[in-house]
Amino acid sequence: MLKSVRYGGDYNPEQWPEEVWREDVGLMREAGVNLVSLGVFNWGIIEPAPGEYDFGGLDRVMDLLHEAGIGVGLGTPTSSPPAWLRKAHPEIRLVDREGRALAGGTRHGVCPSSAAYNEACAAVVEQLAVRYGAHPAVELWHVHNEYGWAGVECYCPASSAAFGRWLEAKYTDIDHLNEAWGTAFWGLVYRSFDQIEAPAAAPPGVNPALQLDWKRFSNEAHLANFRLQREIIARHSAAPVTTNFMIPNCEGMDYWRWAREVDLVANNHYLIAERPENHIELSMSADLARAVAAGPWMVMEHSTSAVNWQSRNLAKAPGEMRRNSLAHLARGADGLMFFQWRASRVGAEKFHSAMVPHGGTDTAVWREVVRLGGDLERLAPVTGSGVDAEVAILWDWESWWALELEWRPSIDLGYRERIEAYYESLWRQHVTVDFAHPEADLSGYRLVVAPASYLLTSEAAKNLRGYVDDGGSLLVSYFSGIVDEHDTVHPGAHPGALRETLGLWVEEFHPLPEGGRVALDLPAGPARGRIWSERIRLDGAEAVGSFTDGPDAGHPAVARHRLGAGTAWYTATALDDATGLRELLGGVLDHAGVPRPAGVPEGLELVRRAEHCFLINHTDQDITVPGIRGANALDDTVYDGDIPVAAGEVVIVRIIEETPPPGSGAARGPGVHGR
Length: 675
Prior knowledge:
Shape: globular
Strand order of the largest sheet: 5-4-3-2-1-9-8-7-6
């Protein structure tokens, strides 16, 4: 969809006098900017009073950008309702779980089910679409901003009533709902849909099936507002329509569903500055965004340096912004945008970094912005190309929701904790990962990993069984396959949905106390687990590792089941890289025939995107990568088997030939992904 790498950021000219606008455009050209997000927060400016519109300033800046050859992602400003709308319709305010209506003076904080809010959205979007639908600068429509940022769920009367209507449409008959939700427990039976309350603050033990459907409804309420705006735009413009996701950091949005509704997936990602090796989490975000998109995607927002909203807003180190940006590109992004173009002098985000910082153009940040723009012009050939992966991690927002409801066997059961443990181990072994929904086609992967599939539908379980039968390798972590889509335990012993596929059953869960550890023996040697232990009973599987202490000493800790043409593996505790996960994964990867490069240090990120191999050095040491012949995509340097990558730098190679380093065994040259 994008013909070159789109580069730019959020542009808010309304914050500046018009004489600055021409300076901005000149600097944009110097930096290689070719796309800006415009008008995302200007509702109160273009509609100063109900039904009164002033587009003069927006007209002038749109024309100015077009004359300079800079495209526009035109925003609909509906995430920042004007003060007059809040005053006239206080019922639009988002109500939190404790029943408090959120005040104004900020953006967001609006009920997506409010009729008054949706009517006002429709009116302003209609005006924008009519006026700018055919404007030659408009390359993209950017609807709203970060749906769900202030809170996905609204507990106001309008939302509660809409929830009842949504449930009636889903279940049609109240008896069907009672059966699905298991309301016979505690006698929580409903006789009509209007008896059902939103799960606001209540005594502990609110029906988990009710809570799951509430989360589904809340996701759909925001989607309905997006569809409303998208359909208005489509009547007046042929440009693609998107909104900015927050993968993976917005738990309440099911982005598998959202991706079906947008023309182009766009994602916001910000590093947690104090998190060690935060570039690994960035890679995970990019891989998940690529999977959700199933095609071209773009970064709508990231930061040139520090943000303003963390406890300690650490500036990025020299070269870090470039490494971050090119890692997104390596993992499939066709656009790299920042918040924002010019640093604000006023408001809540005035200490947020920007492409043009407060210090202006004689700054390291500006020089890195210009350098990156030049790099991206030369990297246009990567646009539209794919990223091959032979390993998939299962990801399901609904399983995340269900796992982290109250009254689970342990407070330490965390969805992202297990996902990230497996992802990080694979990243360190230079294995490029896709993410997949449990019901998706998995036939293209040598290995599928299910670290946190607590909620697994019968259809998904059937899909995984078929994948293994057909020759796939499946690795499942503990407490998976336990419940269905209503949080109802699958019949029989755990893990009911996967019992036959795994060839075992679980007699009892044994969560560990805080800080507890258990010892186990794996084929590679001793290891340690934490969080969890359980009593496994083999029923066709064979033990390949056993607990040596703790409540399950002498019983299997890791099992393997040969099924059909494939193999399913299971681990009954939380292994980390330092305590056995790397060894376990290494053996499973070898069994599945997944190649890994030899002779490449952990801190060197290596990703193959079509004929381009990205080598990103996250360490403070120079590294030489063996086994690649090709030419540097940025300066045409030719490499004949060994590629030097300086500390903190990025080298991108157009591959001519790859050869496996001597003694690499199952490993191959970097980035090779055979089928």
